[in-house]
Amino acid sequence: MNKTDVNKGSDDYSVRSVVMEMKNITLRFGGVVAIKEISFDILEGEIRAIIGPNGAGKSSMLNVISGFYSPQEGEIWFRGEKRPWLKPYQVARQGIARTFQNIALFEGMSVLDNVMTGRLTHMNSNIFSQALWKGQSEREEVENRDHAERVIDFLEIQHIRKTPVSRLPYGLKKRVELARALVSEPSLLLLDEPMAGMNVEEKEDMSRFILDVNDEFGTTIALIEHDMGVVMDLSDRVVVMDYGRKIGDGAPDEVRNNQDVIDAYLGVSHD
User: Do 121 and 247 belong to one domain?
Assistant: First the structure.
């Protein structure tokens, strides 16, 4: 399935609302500038790719969005309001979920239990109620379990739902991590290299699931990915980073033909 073929030329981005806007974001680690004065937005319902060579600052940008890093300069606007610098759990409560470049699952727990951890932001009962498993806590547990099972079915991992994560191959672990993020019902889903290390068949499966999440759930997605074929097929718009700067932003075809982008990927420098 190719999103470019389906949607390009038919979507009017001028009528879509802005979910998130990054304004002049600058992030430093000591004397190292990881991100320098970058601005871009993410629109409702789109798949927004962030690409660039290794060391471009892509994961740092995702960490800024998700609250792991606090930039020294710039502003983040979320759904029309300036967002204060929040901790990751506070960002998650806003409806923003993410996966990680390096898989971050609980290896000794089952697939179902790992997925269930994604429902923590939906658990409001107190510790006493949870210990007795009565009233609100019981209702929450049943509701959260039902939602987790629906996501497991959606991602076609029913057959491994009780399997410890440590026994799974790499590609299925990536799918479990997607399930854990998706079960929180995010309005904005951040995917950090969701297909890194996968073979062709696994990439095709993951591409299909990403498109299905975007289409069937209406989830807005921002993703980092190195496979340019995947990026150009899946994305509505692409922002390109190189050495912490933005060097391109637009539709996949525009970015593909941008000379600065071509040079960055070929390692060409200009005096």
Answer: no
